Sigma-70 family RNA polymerase sigma factor
Amino acid sequence: MPEMDELQELVIEACRHPPGSPQRQRALTKVIRLASRKLWRENVAYYEDALQQTWVYFCQNVCEATTGRKYDPTQSSVVTWLSAYLKRRLQDFYIQGREQETRRAAVRGMASRSGETGELIDPVDNLAANPDVPPILQDVRDWVEADGSGDLVKTHIKGRPEVNCQALLLRRLPPEASWEEISAEFGLPISTLSSFYQRQCLPRLRKFGESEGYL
């Protein structure tokens, strides 16, 4: 059977089973493995992060319209559908990187003018790299919402308890709010929110993924 036809057959098979069932999970995992080799590629540092978001979106919307429009096999192949989404996420990361670079350049300029020295911390260096990701969105959302230890809520920006890791992680799960939207909601600079998220929230998310065997 041609691989593209096999992908469509696996999607049909997955959607025959209820959400969260082992049968659907197995079929979706096969789709991910087969489609991974055919997706859009770019040699950029944030590719794996964009790819993770793409797989989460895939699991949410391939059978039901959970966070976006349900996948329509009459409109495009699975690979074309996912590659289009992946390109949009790559564009988001590119824009965020440009914004961060602009801010760093401004800080360097200020330091130079004031005669300050010392190495500047690059928040991009703290971005978490992600391996191949199985369908884990619901597990992640459940973990964030439950916050059994209270650690996510307790970890917040100084003086702003409502701007905590639970709040930010939920907003960054697909369909993720943009940093511009989150900045407007909390009245804080994007650089402050993004830096806190990368230093405090992403490591906790990674630790959860490792504990569940996803990483």
Notes: Strands lie at 156-157, 160-164. Residues 78-114 form the longest helix (37 residues). DSSP finds nine helices and two strands in the chain.
